[in-house]
Amino acid sequence: MMLTGFIFLLFLTDGVLPENNCSYQDVLNHLQLTKTNELYSMTRPVKNYKRPTRVSLEVLLYAILDVVEKDQKFIPYVWTVMRWHNEYISWDPNQFCGIDNVSLPAEVLWIPDITIEEMTEKDKAPPSPYLTINDKGDVEVQNDQVLVSTCRMHIYKFPFDIQNCNLSFKSIIHTAKDIRLQPSDNSTEATEWSRDVMRTQYEWLFLNMTVTTNNASDLISQDIIIYTITMKRRSLLYIVNFLVPVLFFLCLDLASFLISDSGGEKLSFKVTVLLAVTVLQLILNEILPASSNRIPLIAVYCIGIFALMLLSLLETILVMHLMEKDSQASEDNKADNGRSKDCNKRGKANFHNSHQEGNEWTQCGCIYDVCETPSELLPVTKEVRFELHFATKCQIANITDDKGKIHSCVNSRKVIEEYHALEKLSDELREMQKTLSLLLSNTKEVAKPGYWTKVAKKVNKVFFIFYLTVVSLFLIILFLKWNTG
């Protein structure tokens, strides 16, 4: 009668014993699964060693914690799930009140030695202490970890760059003969699930995650599953804090052309702006890595603007030098005019006080002192000619009236000779006067007041047009490369 009731109870519960008579320990006792049983923990859980253990892997990206360009490090927070089959584990859930899975301490069972190639620092958080088994012998281990991995940064288009960082999963010592790796999800599923569980992305925007399987070509190689995380930098902060300020400094340098070149304010202003750009370059140097295959465009941007501003500073120095030269020339002209007036006064005084022949040529000294009126020599020459001509006539008359006076003829010859010598000297002085007048006129034309100022203004105008053209072309080409390069 009792047996009939028991069978009737099994029929009502579809062959499942009542739950109050079942426990997880009953399952473990049935499997003889204990910490001391080396069957489960010592070796790969296969009954034939030639049969490899197939491990499926699933990876979800929970957060992008940090990307350190200077050290080329990628720090994500990932969730990994590993599944494999243990051939020694199986039971009938109907015999244990429908229990189809049990959680166990992780050290009880053998676990595949899967690692990440790019990982440089081990996760400080302890791994998950438990794993799960089901009635078919499938084992599942879930683990979350913060990875510090290497990532080759391509910063050519910084801060408008897109980075691809890999997480390569493989076994440490087992080859394809022992363990075969396979992803449990494809790229689309991995991307969608990661977006659903994403908590934070730091300054990055997660784009997608690509799953690639590199199967071993022979049994002595290893299977590798590569998860490629693609992310784009949020560049707004860099635009506001770096690119725009440098552009503002360039605009200030262009506006400095409106400042007068006569004082030193323009030069000091340009030097200040140049130093400000230098400070921003030092900040950029702390961000970018020391080694790169190509010069980043943002470095070209800073160096180019720095070079243009330096060229503008040199042009300002040249213009100020020309204007200073013009100012010096004006002061020299004033000094020359003063010396010329003094020279004329001295010449006229010497001319009126001269009585002897040597004193009559004192005016010649003023010619070499750059006098403006050397023509005063001409009356002296004419007066000498007249006196000599008159004296000659008198001597000839004396000779005609009184032939006995031979000494008068001799004196007349001397006078004639002196006359010719003075005539020759007068011609030479006339030629010297023309030469000096020509030299003085050329000097006045070149060094007249305002000449170098006009040259400086022309240089400034031409350079401003050239500077504005070069700056415009440089910025257009650079921004086109940022968008397409």
UniProtKB/TrEMBL annotation:
<keyword id="KW-0770">Synapse</keyword>
<dbReference type="GO" id="GO:0005230">
    <property type="term" value="F:extracellular ligand-gated monoatomic ion channel activity"/>
</dbReference>
<feature type="transmembrane region" description="Helical">
    <location>
        <begin position="462"/>
        <end position="482"/>
    </location>
</feature>
<feature type="transmembrane region" description="Helical">
    <location>
        <begin position="271"/>
        <end position="292"/>
    </location>
</feature>
<dbReference type="InterPro" id="IPR036734">
    <property type="entry name" value="Neur_chan_lig-bd_sf"/>
</dbReference>
<dbReference type="InterPro" id="IPR006029">
    <property type="entry name" value="Neurotrans-gated_channel_TM"/>
</dbReference>
<dbReference type="InterPro" id="IPR036719">
    <property type="entry name" value="Neuro-gated_channel_TM_sf"/>
</dbReference>
<dbReference type="InterPro" id="IPR038050">
    <property type="entry name" value="Neuro_actylchol_rec"/>
</dbReference>
<keyword id="KW-1133">Transmembrane helix</keyword>
<dbReference type="InterPro" id="IPR006201">
    <property type="entry name" value="Neur_channel"/>
</dbReference>
<feature type="transmembrane region" description="Helical">
    <location>
        <begin position="236"/>
        <end position="259"/>
    </location>
</feature>
<dbReference type="InterPro" id="IPR006202">
    <property type="entry name" value="Neur_chan_lig-bd"/>
</dbReference>
<protein>
    <submittedName>
        <fullName>5-hydroxytryptamine receptor 3A</fullName>
    </submittedName>
</protein>
<feature type="transmembrane region" description="Helical">
    <location>
        <begin position="298"/>
        <end position="320"/>
    </location>
</feature>
<keyword id="KW-0407">Ion channel</keyword>
<feature type="domain" description="Neurotransmitter-gated ion-channel transmembrane">
    <location>
        <begin position="243"/>
        <end position="479"/>
    </location>
</feature>
<keyword id="KW-0675">Receptor</keyword>
<dbReference type="GO" id="GO:0004888">
    <property type="term" value="F:transmembrane signaling receptor activity"/>
</dbReference>
<keyword id="KW-1003">Cell membrane</keyword>
<comment type="similarity">
    <text>Belongs to the ligand-gated ion channel (TC 1.A.9) family.</text>
</comment>
<dbReference type="Pfam" id="PF02932">
    <property type="entry name" value="Neur_chan_memb"/>
</dbReference>
<feature type="signal peptide">
    <location>
        <begin position="1"/>
        <end position="18"/>
    </location>
</feature>
<dbReference type="Pfam" id="PF02931">
    <property type="entry name" value="Neur_chan_LBD"/>
</dbReference>
<keyword id="KW-0812">Transmembrane</keyword>
<dbReference type="GO" id="GO:0045211">
    <property type="term" value="C:postsynaptic membrane"/>
</dbReference>
<dbReference type="InterPro" id="IPR018000">
    <property type="entry name" value="Neurotransmitter_ion_chnl_CS"/>
</dbReference>
<keyword id="KW-1071">Ligand-gated ion channel</keyword>
<keyword id="KW-0813">Transport</keyword>
<keyword id="KW-0472">Membrane</keyword>
<comment type="function">
    <text>Forms serotonin (5-hydroxytryptamine/5-HT3)-activated cation-selective channel complexes, which when activated cause fast, depolarizing responses in neurons.</text>
</comment>
<keyword id="KW-0406">Ion transport</keyword>
<keyword id="KW-1015">Disulfide bond</keyword>
<keyword id="KW-0325">Glycoprotein</keyword>
<keyword id="KW-0732">Signal</keyword>
<feature type="domain" description="Neurotransmitter-gated ion-channel ligand-binding">
    <location>
        <begin position="40"/>
        <end position="234"/>
    </location>
</feature>
<keyword id="KW-0628">Postsynaptic cell membrane</keyword>
<dbReference type="InterPro" id="IPR049944">
    <property type="entry name" value="LGIC_TM_5-HT3"/>
</dbReference>
